[in-house]
Design a protein that fits this description.
By secondary structure, the protein is α+β, with helices and mostly antiparallel strands. It contains 14 helices and 19 strands. It has 3 domains: 122 residues, 2-Layer Sandwich (Beta-Lactamase); 113 residues, PAS domain (Beta-Lactamase, 2-Layer Sandwich); 233 residues, 2-Layer Sandwich (Heat Shock Protein 90), CATH 3.30.565.10.
């Protein structure tokens, strides 16, 4: 202010108290006369527009406006004076203002007419809302980015209010996800949203979802579940649902906030991966059976030879008049036993190589090794290899697919047999062991007395298509590693102190 007293009208003066009040005001204050000429400018207005008061006094207030308001301002003022039609007087509105340097900024303007003064004078309160506008624009950009991100990620969100008067909210993404149309009269974005959500859950999964909602309401336990929804619009979808309570300062629940993520594509992709994994492991079993073909042929040839021998004996006995029924019965019993023996070999091989989806079940570790010996004994016997068992007491159990674990063990046993081809037959020995390791996991071991694993090939051992066998595919250990990892375990190897190699894998104990 330039003086303690500023004249604003005949016989009227601004008292020092009013001047102090104007100077203390955060908003800019400008007083104009009936012709639009500036009569008073507060310090806040000086700082806002970049002018000194003496540069504005007597000038038309349109100097502080950009076009087209600058050209039209005097018409608005004269219309009010002539007709007293208050189009902008006494009302707050957003306008554009112009600084001394020509820059334009958004402002909130409120204009009032000073009473009991003729000709009339007007007082304007101006607030620079540039920062607020910038924050609003940033918020809109963030909301748009969030909306786009949710669209790309198939994520929706919702709010359930516990206040009876509040309205529940469901985002457009969630409404499409649950088969609800935005703007429909039957839209769930009104009230009872939780009821509407549960109504589209697959009947088989509904008890799980109801229990999760109950636990959230009763004890505040956060929701983190997966379930299926089934609607005529969206079909069958897989949903990952996260939610928690929001409480007020007194700890009372006021809102239930949640997000729902459509994971159908991921679940379908996981299923495809599982199917591919099953096909690969099945191919591995077929390959293992191929490696065992010679031993299998030898194992089956023995009972077939015995069957042929006893059949010829039966024919001779039938032509012999001195043949007794007991002699004939004994020969036929031997034929039956040898046929069962051959059939058992074929049954074990067929059961091992048959394609099936992974079936996770409780499996006894010791029994797994005992059954494996029956599978591996054919090839081991053919190559002059002894198989020894060192079984853990109480036979700890694991949750696994027993056929896939047998595949891993059989692959390791066949590798061990192959590694001992150049070892003298009396030293050909494989030890199969189960035990609980230091962490309580169930550890399986296959140890041989072969040539061991050289440092040059140790780093390549589990890589696909790497093999040291002339006719090997290089997939056996790679598939074995994949199987063990899919069971939450680990597979590794170490030198055998007595010569040869030891292969281990460990699985969590059930």
């Amino acid at each position: 202010m330039t003086s303690p007293l500023v004249t604003i009208g005949p016989l009227r003066q601004v008292q020092p108290e009013l001047e102090t009040l104007l100077d203390a005001a955060i908003d800019g204050v400008v007083i104009i006369d009936h012709k639009g000429r500036i009569r008073l400018v507060s310090h806040a207005a000086e700082a806002m527009f970049g002018y000194r008061e003496d540069e504005l006094l007597g000038h038309n207030v349109s100097k502080l406006m950009p076009e087209p308001d600058r050209s039209q301002h005097d018409q608005y003022l004269q219309r009010y004076i002539a007709k007293r039609e208050a189009r902008i007087i006494g009302k707050a509105r957003e306008v554009l203002a112009q600084r001394r340097d020509g820059s334009v900024f958004p402002a909130e303007l409120a204009v009032g007419c000073i009473r009991n003064i003729e000709p009339p004078r007007f007082i304007a309160f101006i607030r620079d809302i540039s920062e607020r506008k910038q924050k609003d624009a940033a918020l809109r950009r963030n909301e748009a980015a969030l909306h786009t991100a949710q669209e790309l990620a198939n994520i929706g969100n919702y709010v359930i209010h516990f206040d009876a008067g509040a309205v529940d909210y469901a985002s457009p993404q969630m409404m499409r996800m649950f088969g609800w149309e935005t703007g429909n009269a039957d839209s769930p974005a009104i009230n009872h949203l939780a009821v509407r959500m549960v109504s589209v859950v697959h009947p088989a999964d509904r008890p799980q979802v109801l229990q999760a909602f109950t636990d959230l309401d009763a004890s505040g336990t956060p929701i983190d579940i997966e379930y299926r929804t089934l609607t005529s619009q969206s079909g069958l979808r897989y949903i990952h649902h996260l939610a928690q309570l929001v409480r007020d300062e007194q700890g009372r629940p006021i809102q239930h906030l949640g997000t729902v993520h459509d994971i159908t594509d991921r679940r379908l992709a996981d299923y495809e991966v599982q199917q591919m994994h099953s096909r690969i492991t099945h191919s591995g079993r077929v390959s293992i059976l191929g490696e065992m073909a010679t031993g299998i042929a030898h194992e089956i040839n023995q009972p077939l030879t015995a069957i042929a021998t006893y059949a010829k004996a039966c024919l001779r006995l039938l032509t012999n008049e001195e043949c007794t029924p007991e002699e004939l019965k004994h020969a036929l019993e031997q034929i039956s036993q040898q046929a069962l023996r051959a059939g058992e070999v074929i049954r074990r091989m067929r059961s091992f190589v048959k394609y099936h989806d992974a079936r996770i079940e409780l499996t006894e570790s010791n029994r797994l090794l005992e059954e494996l010996v029956q599978l591996a004994q054919t090839d081991a016997h053919y190559h002059g290899v002894r198989v020894l068992l060192e079984l853990a007491p109480e036979s700890p159990r694991v949750r696994a697919d027993p056929v896939q674990l047998q595949q891993v063990l059989l692959n390791l046993v066949l590798n061990a047999i192959d590694a001992m081809q150049d070892v003298p037959e009396p030293q050909r020995e494989i030890v199969l062991r189960t035990r609980l390791d230091e962490r309580g996991d169930v550890e399986f071991m296959v140890a041989d007395r072969g040539s061991g694993v050289s440092p040059e090939i140790a780093n390549e051992l589990f890589n696909p298509f790497y093999t040291t066998k002339q006719a090997g595919t290089g997939l056996g250990l790679s598939i074995s590693l994949s199987i063990i990892r899919s069971h939450g375990g680990k597979l590794w190897h170490a030198d055998n102190p007595g010569g040869g190699a030891r292969f281990f894998f460990a699985l969590p104990r059930a």
